[in-house]
Amino acid sequence: MLHLYDSKSAHIQPLSPVTPGKVGIYLCGATVQGSPHVGHLRAAVSFDTLIRWLRRSGYEVTYVRNVTDIDDKILNKSAEAGWDWWAWAYRFEREFTQAYETLGVQAPTYEPRATGHIPDQIDLVQRLIDAGHAYSDGRGNVYFDVHSQPDYGSLTRQRLADMRTTEDDAQIDEAVEAGKRDPRDFALWKATKPGEPATASWDSPWGRGRPGWHLECSAMSRRYLGDEFDIHGGGIDLRFPHHENEQAQSHGAGWEF
What we know:
Layout: E1 3-6, E2 11-14, E3 22-27, H1 38-56, E4 60-65, H2 72-81, H3 85-103, H4 118-130, E5 134-136, E6 142-144, H5 174-177, E7 186-191, E8 209-211, H6 215-225, E9 231-233, H7 239-252
Parallel strand pairs: 3-4, 3-9
Antiparallel strand pairs: 1-2, 5-6, 6-7, 7-8
């Protein structure tokens, strides 16, 4: 029997799939803002090794690795370089693909892009609002209320009282922070800002905007793997705030994580 280290419990434990004989894996893939580096590829190779072992052991593996192709960093860097944001993202998505292929990393079962799942993300935001876990500031931004989720902080074993913010530093700006009831709430949907390209926003019930960084992974993992799946992974630097916020969104929606 295969035993794996579970970072949530901080223990090594046996793999016990939700569905016997099948394993569902979601790996947080690249934010395609620039060229891949060794840290990105280490995660890809580590999970490739695991997936090969599982398949060799007779498991049917569904492996999902997303591409974050809309993000503050992508918008900023493409604007500085004078590129369309979508062309900038695709350029580096191709670089990542070439790097994976050079290393012999197997292709995922599905490789969804954030921009291809905007309706799923809008539906999730509405679900969280309806469940009392999220609120709109009336100016096009929607936030997750961390106080509404009793287990917030449990993934990384932190107390909410000890946190300054639950946003990645690169995601913090005055326009988004202004509407928060608590600075530790995090953005689910961001209103479009003056000067941003019109193509980088979508219509929503709260106004024209785009998803927050964390939202896509909860929406896409559920789309391809269902309400509950076996392994969620990514670089260790993503555990907080990204994976912690993913767990909060998924639990708030009534899904396992």
